[in-house]
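Q: Hi! First time asking for a complex rather than a single chain. Here are the components, and I think there are two in total. Is that enough to go on?
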Amino acid sequence: MEVFYYLVVSAVLFALGVYGLLARRNIIRMLLSAEIIFNSALLAFLSLASLDATYVAEGGSVVILAISLSAAEVGVIVSIALMMFRMKRTLDVYELKKFKG
Amino acid sequence: MNLFDPAFLSFSLSSLLMLISAILIVWHRSIVYSAFFLSMLGVGNAVLFAMLGFPIIALFHLAVYVGAAVTFILFSVVMLREAPTVEVPTKLLAILSSVLLAVIMINIFSVFNVQPAYTLNYRDLTSLLVDKYWFALIVAALALVTTLIEAITLARKEV
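A: Yes, that's all I need. Here is the structure of the assembled complex.
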């Protein structure tokens, strides 16, 4: 399969993620949409890395680090969402304005 | 293009799984199901990684991303028993911008109409991680430990 097809899948996923991020107000749903974008970025990154021998190992190592950091980022955002739910009983991001000191 | 070619079939099935999962993540009413479909998206992505010549990254993606991150979201979401947030009606601006983004990206990517040429060499990967990116590796490991502490703290409800 040509790399172009992988990149098309990545572009469509990216667009779906952007739609979810713009159109939803629930913080967990926004996180899930951001994760779609993250997955599409990984796919595009590895598709392009597989084109050149110089960048195969570089691309692989960067993706491994990105996946690890994404796991940490998910933990932080889910913790914020849980705290928000315990304090305000809602997951609506518009309510986050009220968290200002 | 041979429709019964195993590579073509696996690519089509994985892509279809990913696209349907992505649509359901955004539009499904239940957040728990959305989180489940994110794990399906991760599985499809791992299959595509393996097909591109990165099997070790595919395994890492399955173990760390699907096995840890998405499962963490899923179990945390189960703890939230919330009345669904009232979502505003589909915004025209969001649809327009996402369609525009997809069209622009596909146009840019049309240059890369070639087969993936190289596969990952594990020896190169490990030496690169240990020699060049050792500091980033330590930071990533520490970040994962932080997530573990967060999970334990949330589970004990100390905050």
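A: Chain A has a mean pLDDT of 88. Let me know if you'd like any chain examined more closely.
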